Amino acid sequence: MHPTMGLRRGLKLPDSEIAVQHNLKHHFADMEQQKETSTFGMWVFLVTEIMFFGGMFAAYLIYRLSYYNAWVAGSQTMEIQLGAINTAVLICSSLTMVMAVHSAKLGNRKLTAIFLILTLALGFAFLGIKGVEYHTHWVHHEVPGADFHFEHAGNYDPRQVAIFFSLYFAMTGMHAMHMIIGAGLLTWLLIANARGRFSPSYNSPVEMVGLYWHFVDLIWIYLFPLLYLISHHHNG
Amino acid sequence: MEAASHSEAKTNYLNADYGIKSWLLTTDHKRIALLFLGSITFFFFIGGFFAMLIRLELLTPAGDLVLADTYNKLFTMHGIVMIFLFLIPSIPAVFGNFLIPMMIGAKDLAFPKLNLASWYIYMAGASFILYAIVTGGMDTGWTFYTPFSTTYSNTNVITAAVGVFIVGFSSIFTGLNFIVTIHRMRAPGLTWRRLPLFIWAHYATALIMVLGTPVLAITIVLVALERLFHFGIFDARLGGDPLLFQHLFWFYSHPAVYIMILPSMAVISEVIACFSRKRIFGYDFVAMSSIAIAVLGFLVWAHHMFVAGISTYAALIFSLLTFFVAIPSAVKVFNWTATLYKGSISFETPMLYAFAFIGLFTIGGLTGIFLGAVGLDLHVHDTYFVVAHFHYVMVGGGVTGFLCALHFWWPKMTGKMYPEAFAKLSAVLVFVGFNLTFFPQFLLGYLGMPRRYHAYPPEFQVLNVLSTAGASILAAGFIMPMIYLVWSLQYGKDAGPNPYRAAGLEWKTASPPATFNFDETPVVTWEAYNYDEIDAPDHGPQKGVEVAG
Prior knowledge:
The complex is a heterodimer of chains A (236) and B (549). Chain A is an all-alpha fold and 236 residues long. Chain A has one domain (35-229): Cytochrome c oxidase, subunit III, four-helix bundle (Four Helix Bundle (Hemerythrin (Met), subunit A)), CATH 1.20.120. Chain A has helices at residues 5-8, 15-23, 31-66, 68-75, 80-106, 109-139, 158-194, 204-229. The termini of chain A are far apart. Chain B is built from 18 helices and no strands. In chain B, helix 3 (29-57) packs antiparallel against helix 17.
């Protein structure tokens, strides 16, 4: 239904009603059905994301069992401090994201914008720190390929450490890719928010991006212990 | 036909808007379905062209038509085009897209823009694959097995793999849209157990699309990383495991077989009920068997790897699980047959295809049991027996189901009837041509002719000549509908809203339907396939079939 149709007929609608009608897509019966549908769709999408990362987690598990000593050695090259800081950064960004969703629900445009910008800034901080780590691995010839070189001091083949690093770069790289997509979504929200698209009755895009952002954080919450912590105090 | 002329005069989804832009920017699920129909038909004939070249090469024992390398490319391109660009999207993206919202009384799918996006994503991925084909092709087989794909092949592996990766997202988004639509958009009164079985089977298909395809996506990413940056995850020289690739690949690609067959089963349930004028026997079992196929389908992938080096115990367990999948498949076949029992059967074209499906799928499915038995698989692995088996499932099942759906819902999509006599002739041609093409391949495989060779010993020639002759008949059977269906757009009889007096909400609206399908959201108070009520002489208008909008 066209948003101004009621007005053309000479009916007077309260402002909130007009906002509701403007955002209700033609194929839904009401706002509630529309909102439930988009939430459900986002959850189904997140399930596909779990399967996407699941392939790599399966490979990680299999090789960790096969090449345990190499896994320990690879894990011990990780910089735990940077990883821990990044974990804290991401958790904070989840908090600011929740606050952005909350502000959008209250209809506070200014606060929504501030929290979205904070989330974005924390996201970039994460990517920056990740970049520093990648650079260190690069300098130490720990990137798989022709240049790979690993001083080994244990009962394992250094090529097995290359597989650890292959999975490390594949998993954290895919995670970083999701962060970059998330940053794009946050920017889009900022623009829409500045144009006054969100209101207490219509804010599901903010909530959907929020779900996505938390999911990407959650992936990191698994990656950090598996890649950095789990074998740190074992002897290779 | 007053109802027909009435619906004719109305605006419908085809004439609501004109011009190329109104098609390329449409969010109407029915128009998007037609976009898909055009695209997949195009790729079906490309894949069919490669198949013809393969069959021509195998007409003679000597490898005299194409070089061995070219032959490798031909069967690879045939497989990739047919599977990723035709079979996977075929029924879901065309008929699922067109019919799911109508069957559940909705105005559209839950996410119309995402639906359009999935067509564009499909086209983008298809362009990559097409580009890989015209710039020299690829020769890894459709399975992209490592280490050949990552290390040794000098063909366009990356371009094709990127194409498959992208097309996968089209499939994911279609599946996501279906799941959410079926959960959230049903008309009032349309409870789960009142849903047509078409919906149940598509729901199961969508589950596989959503759960399986991402695994293929990440597997392809890892292959690409390996090929470009020498990561070594699948490279035995670097300590990696090529078998891991096969596990991850078949974790998607075996369930993908059910993406290709479940939608056909969806179609057959509708058609069998309509042309035997009966409710499907054992509705609950048929519905649940779809879900069971989707679930069990995820537990059998390693039966593709019996000779690849998995352990004997793993092989035995996967063999047993493979036998389990036969149970829900058999439930469907038996229940369709039981539906026919004492039905008033008529033999319109869709019903001919449905009969063909039941017979061919049964042969394809049962030979799958042969292959799932470890001992027999060792004997016929990588022979023409396997080729014959999966063509019985994918062409005998998948393509036959597609043609069945195309004829059954053509009147609904276009408002025109197809010419019945030609359609029946083509159905017979498809059935005869198909069996002549692929049955000899069972024999060839059992006698030991391996797949994927462009030359073979002379004693296999007679069966190969039969197969190639059958392929020509099959080709005629596929080209005929192209011609008469296009012809019918102009000259076909007006179909009216419900030419078959079929049950189902999609038949209660005009043909072709209006853009938003229904003038008013229907309220459902009856069970699916209420043919007793439709055929009863005193049926009331609220349950009637000719309530053209």
